Amino acid sequence: MWKKLWIRQAIKRLDSRKLPLRVIFWDEVEYVPKVPEKVLLRLHSPEAVRALATPTLGSLARAYVEQKFDLEGDIRHILDIGEELCDAATARDPRGSATFAWLRHTRPADRRNIGRHYDVSNDFYRLWLDPRLVYSCAYFRHPDDSLERAQEQKLDLICRKLMLKPGERFLDIGCGWGALLFWAIEHYGVHGSGITLSKEQHAYVQNEIEKRKLGSKMEVHLLDYRELHAGQPFDKIASIGMFEHVGRRNLVTYFNSINKLLKPGGLVMNHGITAADLDTQGLRSGISEFVEQYVFPGGDLVHISRVLEALGKAGLECLDVESLRPHYAKTLWRWVERLQASAERARELVGEEKYRIWRIYMGGSAHAFSRGWMSLHQVLAGKVHEDGSLPYPFTRDHLYAE
User: Fold this and answer.
1) What is the pLDDT of residues 9-19, one digit of tens each?
2) Sheet holding 374-382, edge to edge
3) Is the dihedral of CA 275, 277, 279, 281 positive or negative?
4) What confidence tier does 69 reach under pLDDT thresholds 50, 70, 90?
5) In the structure, what pLDDT confidence band is assigned to residue 119 with cuts at 50, 70 and 90?
6) What is the similarity comment for this entry (predicted)?
7) CA distance 208 to 192
8) % of the chain with per-residue pLDDT over 90
9) Same domain assignment for residues 266 and 295
10) What domain range is 24 assigned to?
11) Is 57 in contact with 38 (CB distance < 8 Å)?
12) pTM for the whole thing?
C-alpha cells in the first residue's frame, strides 16, 4: 500500500512541476515528462521512490550516494531539477539544521573530522585539483582563465593583501598541501610555517620541503591551532578554507589564538565559506545533514557579520572584506568537470560511494554558491600597535597592479 502511495505522490509532484525528468522504475515502468527530457532517473527498488515522493536535496543526495538510484545527464541540469523538485528555493528556515547547534569541537574530535575529509587519498585529489593541490576558491581575473592560472592568481592575491616582504615570518593555519607557503617563499622570500591536522597533507608537505631543499626556509607541523605557541610572533598569518571547521562557539577562541601569534602591526587573512542567512545554523533542504554525515563532519557556517564580530572581540581590526562567491561557484564547477572526466580512475582509488559523494557534494556546492545560498569572504585584519597605529595603504592599488 505504501509503495503505491509513494508512487502516486511522486508522479503528482513530477506532473505539477513539469520537470524535464524521465523516471524508470525498478519494474521497468516509465514516467515520461511532458517537456523534453534532460535527465534520466533509474530507481533500483521500491524503497528508492520514497526519496522522490517526499524529497529534500539532502535525502535525494543520500539516496544517490547509497546507490538506490542512478542519474544520467548533465550535473547542472540534475541540480536545477533537484531544486525545483524539492522547492528548495523557498525552503528557507533561518534556523537551518539543528545538528550544528550541538557540535563539540574538542581537539580529538577535530582531528578525527579533518582526517575523514582530507585523508582520503592524495592521488584522488590530484585527479581534479590543479597541480599545486590548492583546495580552496580560485580567483578568476578573466572568465576563461584556466583553473591552474586562477589558483595562482588567488595565491598571489592573498600575498598582496598581506603585503608579504622578504624575511618575514609567515604562518599558514590549515596549510593543506602547502601551495600558499611554497608560493610565498618562492615569490616573496618569507620564512614559512604551516600547521595541519591531516596526516597525509603533513607527510606530503614534509616530503616537498625535503625535495625542494627548503629546510632552512619552511617548516610544517601536525598541530591544532590551539596547540601552537610561537616563541617569536609572526609578521603575517593566513587561514585559508580552515575556519569552517572551528565551530561558531570557538570563533573568539580562534581569533584570540591568532592575535597571540601575531606581532603588533602584523596582518592576518581569514578566507572561508560563510552562510547567506544571518541566523542560520546550516543549509536548506536537508543539505546540512547530508554534509555532516558524508563530507564535513563538524563543519559549521556563520554569517560574515558573526565573523567580524568575533574578530573584533579578539582585538583584531578589520581592514578589508571581499566576497568571492562567484569565484567559488566557478572553481567548484571546474572541479566537478575534472572529477567526472576521471570517473573511472576515481572509482578505482576511492570506490563508487566516495566518488558519488564528492560528485554530488561539489556539484551541489557549486549550485549553492551560484544561487547565493552560501558565500565566501576574504577578511583582512591587523593587530594595532600600542599607539593605535596600523600601517596599511590608503588605497587598494597594490592589489591590482600587474
Assistant:
1) 888 888 888 99
2) 218-222, 191-196, 169-173, 234-240, 262-275, 374-382, 317-323
3) negative
4) very high
5) low
6) Belongs to the CFA/CMAS family.
7) 13
8) 67
9) yes
10) 2-90
11) no
12) 0.91
